[in-house]
Every structure is written in C-alpha cells, then in structure tokens.
Amino acid sequence: MRIQLLPLTVLSLALYSQNVLVGQTKQLAAYDDATAYEVYSAVISLRDTSGTMRATNFVIRQETLRNFGGRVDDGSEPNLSVCLRPDPDFERLIGPAISDYIRINKTKWLLEDRFEFTVPYELVPPKRVLSLINKDGWDVFHKKYPGSGGFIDLSAVGFNADKSIAVVSKGNWCGELCGEGSYYVLQKKDGKWVPLDSEGERCRWMS
Q1: Which residues are CB-contacts of 132 (< 8 A; sequence separation ≥ 6)?
Q2: CA–CA distance, 194 with 197 (Å, rounded to integer)
Q3: pLDDT tens-digit profile of 63-105?
Q4: Alpha helices of 46-201 — where are they, by DSSP H?
C-alpha cells in the first residue's frame, strides 16, 4: 500500500475549529447502521500510532466527518477517489465500498451510543469539545478527559453489497500540532472486521 502523507498546518486546524462550530442548530439524523458500529469499534481498537494507542478511554466527536483531513462544513462533496485508489487487482473488491462511502458521506450523521470497546468512551458534541479547546486550550481538555489522549473523528462507513468490505476514515486530535488521520479498508473474516492488506494508494494526514 502506497501512503501519501498530507501535512496539516496550523491554519487548516484553525479552519477546522471554525467550520465545525458553524451551523450546529440543525438536527442531524441518527446513524443507525449496526454494522457500521462494528467497523468503528474495530478500527478504533487498532490503536495505530496516535495518542489513542495509550488511551484508557475514548472521546469521540458525535457528528460524522464528511471530508477527509478535518475540513468540514464547506459544502463540497467528499473526493475519496483522489486519496484512495486500489490497484486494478483490488478495484473489483474495494470499488463498490468506495462508491458507497462517497454516497453515505454526502450526509452528516449523528453517532449513537453503540460502540463496543474494552475501555470506556464518551460521545461529545463538537461544539462542546472544540469550544473547550479554543477557550481554555488543550491542557484543560486533557484535564477534563484524562486518559483519552485527545478526541477521535469518524466518517460514515461505506460498504460493498454484502457488507463484507468497509471503507472509513478516522482522525485523531491530541493537541494544537498533534494529530493524524487515514482511510481504512477492512474485511469481515470469521465474524470479525480486520484490516484488508490491499495494494494501491491511500492518503494519510499528520500534524
């Protein structure tokens, strides 16, 4: 898998904070796909290299993230095809899930309390968590949510027809210049969601 790194600047983080605080009065539809929560629980439990690797609890932003890299509420359609390109041998397998990802993420959704982890978690409205960061800073955030290592952003999940392949993006924010995010492709094997080792290009952002 070829990874394309996209650095996230202070400016884009500031725009992220401003954009996410706009238009919070509109009621969002609940995201009630049970299989999607299986995927979320699997991908967050991977722990990767972010602050969640050492987390003893998770703080998850309650609204899904529509656009990759934290740029939200700009009215544009997510452009996954630029950042997730499976090689031809994997296109037939992953392509339908990519198309479904683009479709489902045209809408922003409200996540429900349906995750399954071995550690506690909390769903937090973005206005609350980002107001805390903007007003009091990350030190106060970490005191309010000790052991979290920051907060997590999730997209809605794209599936193939039989829901055996899933595509999702996840971001982790741990400080002003501390964060990372990536696309994930998972496959259901023996009743469990595991990373699919496929060839192609995939974007990842880091700050």
Answers
A1: 140, 141, 144
A2: 9
A3: 998 776 544 334 444 454 457 788 888 899 999 999 999 999 9
A4: 80-83, 88-104, 126-136, 138-144
